[in-house]
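hiii so my PI (J.) wants the whole complex modelled not just the main chain, which honestly fair. so below is everything: two entries, each one labled with what it is. i double checked the lines twice but i was tired so who knows lol
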Amino acid sequence: MPISSASTDAYRGVDDLRPAVEAGLIAACNFGDGCPTRLADAMRYAVLAPGKRLRPLLVLMAAEACGGMLGNLTDSAIAEVMPGAVAVEMIHAYSLIHDDLPAMDDDDLRRGRPTVHIEFDEAIAILAGDALQAEAFAQIANHVRDPQRAIEATRILAKAAGAAHLVGGQADDLMAETDPMGVKGRTVLGSSPEGGESSAALLASLQSIHRRKTGALFSASLDLGAVLSGASEEARASLGRYAEHLGLAFQVTDDNLDYTADTDTLGKRAGKDADRGKLTYPGLLGIEASREKARELIEASKREALFFADSAERLLWLADYVLERTN
Amino acid sequence: MPISSASTDAYRGVDDLRPAVEAGLIAACNFGDGCPTRLADAMRYAVLAPGKRLRPLLVLMAAEACGGMLGNLTDSAIAEVMPGAVAVEMIHAYSLIHDDLPAMDDDDLRRGRPTVHIEFDEAIAILAGDALQAEAFAQIANHVRDPQRAIEATRILAKAAGAAHLVGGQADDLMAETDPMGVKGRTVLGSSPEGGESSAALLASLQSIHRRKTGALFSASLDLGAVLSGASEEARASLGRYAEHLGLAFQVTDDNLDYTADTDTLGKRAGKDADRGKLTYPGLLGIEASREKARELIEASKREALFFADSAERLLWLADYVLERTN
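here's the output for the full assembly
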């Protein structure tokens, strides 16, 4: 039976948390005297683009849940985790800039606006991404007061952004696109996608890609919120499992949206994944089974959120939101 | 009068320090189960390429000078600073991969071997660079034991690698190439490079680029060695000034080498900078004045090294080496 969300509608949203995130991002987009204007412009264009801010919001939501402060995050509690919130958004923004490059996914539209290499140029796009990654680590090193928490946060972020997670997932995703037989050097596709075992292997491979590409940074966001707010190990572990399911569900719904939505609703060119034969959930399972997959993952994530009892409401809402979103 | 180097020849070299650096780099090039083989291969290809290892050696040399351990760095003293040594080499390797990309400097040869995007492909080159930057921060976060030193090291590395330094310098370098009138949005070139004031402005601009592009990581390397080995503030400051002069000298001699050397000696295509009208010291000052500039910078760096008295010998040798190197 589906877990019902908040008993009231008070935390069916994150609008009360948004202003702090936006203010934090704007304040962080000051890159120093030696930063060329055009580079800073490109970095701001990417970071301050209209966006869901899902990852920084996750940082705040984790702090809220772990601190038992539902709807009552204090300014000092926000300040404590804000370097983590800004850092994950910078990592996310950099990864989008690089993913959109001609040598990668070759997208010219992102959130309804020209991508960075279209609005600026390819060199600036590469460099803006590079600089945003460094700035993400600088945010934590410069603005987290407790050294022990700062270094744990750096560890979390570096792992999630690294070769075995964010970047590795993207690399496998690209390689699967051009060579679905050879993801990670293993044969994942047998005779046809319809065949039982080969289809299962392909699904496992797709899941592994999504878990690293999207899930790792989702999990890192919640873990950063927990660590920077001084949460218990139990709270970190529950959030970790919540995040794992949620992150994968987010990617499945993303695939489903691309499969069914039109370009206007989506803010990027719809159906592009299918056009180029990219490995997707609806492509592999069919759209109905793919939607069911998303529902299952969301239920699993909500079960983990219950650890936080009365403070779980916004985590439950988010799970519903990920399932129901249209863009 | 030039400062004479070591009274003995014992520290006219770094061969005794190399094995530790190579072992540290090899040990660090293990990127975890989730890292696709091809991505790991590209990262190793870049990091373990034959190279001068100048930056990691600087980390060790700083620890040696600050610890008064000339020629006697203990295994535990090496282990203490090795995460910093590995991290700077990873940042350096990533920046070379990205600088060589078609949208950037478009080089197909590096240290006599095909560049990463030639040997692998462009997408893997972008991703290998991205992952190496994350791994650099992971090295420090995971392997420096003292949290206070770890976070200071992260701060140093993130600043040097960031928008106002390494990346900003490269961005200005690229923009100067295509638009020498508009570096940093200011007009730096008047009527001709021969004109007094405009030539001075162009030189200032070139110096600013090199200071950020090369100097920042040189300085960071020495500072990392100092911080990770627990050096005094005075020692850090002296090393900082030594590094600033040395880093700029390195870039001047690099320009001079490109201007005069042939492709075989250099391991990259000689004269390429001049071909594309890139801003260089010999191009701006003439080769003789540019060589004199390098000599002056080296003397200035050697004066700072004298702070370390008996432990300065290897720092003095390095200064001479930078001046005299042929590749």
